[in-house]
Amino acid sequence: MFVPISQIENLNQFKKEIFNGKIYVFEKSKITSQLVDQIKKKIGIDYSGELEKLHHLSNCEEISTHLVAKLKNTEIFKNLFYEFLHSINFLQGESYWDKFVVRVAPAKNKFKYREASRIGVHRDTWGTNIHQQINWWAPISSIEETNTMVFFPDYFDRPVKNSTGSWDLNIYLENRKKGDFSYPSAPELLDKLPENVRILPVTIKPGEILCFSGSHLHSSSKHKSENTRFSYEIRTVCQDDLDSKNEAPNIDCELKWQFPKIFRNMKDNSPMKITS
Q: What is the DSSP secondary-structure string of 54-76?
């Protein structure tokens, strides 16, 4: 299901396939290697140990939280990612992105409300109600099946019970400004998935980049691991997809509003607006 690719030949066809559930893996390149190296260099200012073994330190949680906050939206990371998007022929017309986030997933699954944590089962579109959203995700350190991202591919077009009907991004953002993490950072799954659900773990290597629709049901793996995972992620939306209603199907999102304000124009940083 993970389709290797080095460059986009036909952008319209590529996005059509993404919005129909296909998952691409962009191959390692000079630019993607530079991006990983730059992130490691910035991490090394505060933590010089082996990334996968961070959890052995008694203060690993404090270090993880500090790194996530410090590295978010770093200009050199976004510049290199922009170069990557240009190199694969993705940038055609106005495009938007959210924050560039470096995540730390601990070897033991503890804090669900922090970015230095593992993430529960969700669709990213549950948080925005924008179904033209494309996700980009990549490991910084080596990953293993016990501590990676996993997909539930059979649920791309199958609804699951969730809390989108009552969740509000504005409430979360206001609480977060006050340092209050009691409100969930995103809508949550309300029913457990079947025990025999098909799971597709991601085992790509540093320098490779995963590209998929934000409508995919996915999560962090739930196993105890021997490795801390470092990864980065960012989401994009293209204006032509908004204009043409080229999007993934809305299977089960019941948000009352759309939340475009988290996306900014890649060129002038102006907020994305949606007009009906």
A: GGGSTTHHHHHHHHHHHHTT-HH
Tell me the pLDDT tens digit for each residue of 74-121: 999 999 999 999 999 999 999 999 999 999 988 876 655 455 678 889
Distance CA 83, CA 75 (A): 12
* Other C-beta atoms lying within 10 Å of the C-beta of residue 83: 17
Q: Tell the CATH topology of 2-265.
A: Jelly Rolls (2.60.120)
H or E segment and range at residue 169: helix 169-177
**CA torsion through residues 131, 91, 37, 203, sign:** positive
The domains of the chain are located at 2-265
What's the distance, CA 36 to chain centroid?
A: 16
Write the CB contacts of 30 (distance below 8 Å, at least 6 apart in sequence): none
**196 or 109, greater pLDDT:** 196
Quote the pTM value. Answer: 0.94
Question: Nearest Cα to 139, choosing from 57, 232, 20?
Answer: 232
Residue 123 pLDDT > 90: yes
Cα 22 to Cα 265: distance, rounded to the nearest angstrom: 26
Question: Do residues 50 and 128 make contact, with C-beta atoms less than 8 angstroms apart?
Answer: no
Q: Are 62 and 116 in contact (CB under 8 A)?
A: no
